[in-house]
Amino acid sequence: MTKDRTYNILVVDDEIDICQILQYNLEKEGYSVAVATSAEEALQNNIPNFNLLLLDVMMDGMSGFELASALKNNEKTSDIPIIFLTAKDSEQDILHGFGLGADDYISKPFRILELLARVKVVLTRSEHREKQEKDTLQYEGIVLNTSQKKVYVDGKDVPFTRTEFELLALLLSVRGRVLSRQELIDRIWPNDTTVMDRTVDVNILRIRKKIEPYSSCIATKMGYGYYFKG
Description:
Layout: E1 8-12, H1 16-28, E2 32-36, H2 39-42, E3 52-55, H3 64-72, E4 82-86, H4 91-99, E5 104-107, H5 112-134, E6 136-139, E7 142-145, E8 150-153, E9 156-158, H6 162-173, E10 179-180, H7 181-188, H8 197-210, E11 218-221, E12 225-228
Parallel strand pairs: 1-2, 1-3, 3-4, 4-5
Antiparallel strand pairs: 6-7, 7-8, 8-9, 10-12, 11-12
């Protein structure tokens, strides 16, 4: 995990003493912690601001399972990691929890050091996933790793020149928007380089060949320029 980053954790449990124990120990580790004693109270918080949810299952009103299901079906909260913390520890309950998208499932009574270790693992995994998503541009079988400057087509590593990579990355990042040849030249080539429109066309042709069978995704708008459709 990033040392200088503050992680926000929401603890949801109808047992106040458990909320207090978790809040105390998590804050000792440097986390920012909010607590709620019901799913309904939890939903009054701005859930997308949290990096992790610790959910009890058996609560009055909406259960932890129901809360998790609602959050995982909401685009704004679907990626937030969830750890269930509950006395419901049958194999069926555990499988149900993971089936809802939980990242971990801890049975009560829990050992605080083990819980803290699992919290760290889940947050580290989530941060790594966020970084991968930030470094990736993708459309169907075309995947660009912007940090490693690599292009994969249907899983195959395809060699690209710097110019080809930057052109494809630009078109893919503004998918659907038509970019004129001059705009592509201004944004891809150095200012002190003289580039003809034909140079853009040649590079686009090479890219189309390299991304087969997705060549048609780079379309020409006659009289305007190029765009990535799809």
